[in-house]
Amino acid sequence: MRYAQGGGLTPKGQQARERVRLEAGARFGRGEKTAEIAAELRVGKRQVEKWRRSWREGGLDALRSKGPMSVERLSPRQWERLERELARGPLAHGWDEGQGWTLVRIKTLIGRMFHVGYTVQGVWKLLRRHGWSAQVPAHRAIERNDEAVEVWKDEVWPRVKAPRRTWTPTSASRTKRARG
After folding, report:
1. Which among 118, 99, 96 has a CA at the least distance from the CA of 107?
2. Packing angle, helices 45-58 and 11-29, rounded to 10
3. pTM greater than 0.70 (yes/no)
4. What is the C-alpha separation between 129 and 76, in angstroms, rounded?
5. DSSP label at residue 19
6. What pLDDT band is residue 13 in, cutting at 50, 70 and 90?
7. Among 80, 95, 102, 115, which has the minimal tally of Cβ within 10 Å of its Cβ?
8. What is the dihedral of CA 107, 110, 115, 118, to 10 degrees?
9. Where do the Winged helix-turn helix domain residues begin and end (predicted)?
10. Which helix (H) or strand (E) holds 141?
11. Which helix (H) or strand (E) holds 48?
């Protein structure tokens, strides 16, 4: 089972995965073979072997979910407010527009707004979980002249560029021509 694009499983996905593990546990009790269980449940054999070891050591309880690995500390209402503030841009919150939003800036903004501490990695996971991705702004020189660039590409570059060598058979001989 592949994890969602955002990384990790949602609570609903965790419950579904737990049901698969518990089904495997019931099949272990009936003495079914690992390969059969893996094929039926559409998981890898190694994963089933790992579950079987856990089941031997602790029964079905060992296959139950341990709960979410991390709990989101922002409520849905706080997340909506954070998104609105991010849309306003870093300048509205006292940062220069030069770098845009960085994880450190978002971490600081969350701390200021909600008095909730996140690590930089935690901010990255929070953003990914909500469908955000890293965006790198295109930096362009102020002096850039797009028309001049196009002229150069169309007129100058073809003259400067070396012509491509065509494919023709060559001699494989190591001898050199005699000097005359």
Report:
1. 118
2. 70
3. no
4. 12
5. H
6. confident
7. 115
8. -40
9. 98-155
10. none
11. helix 45-58
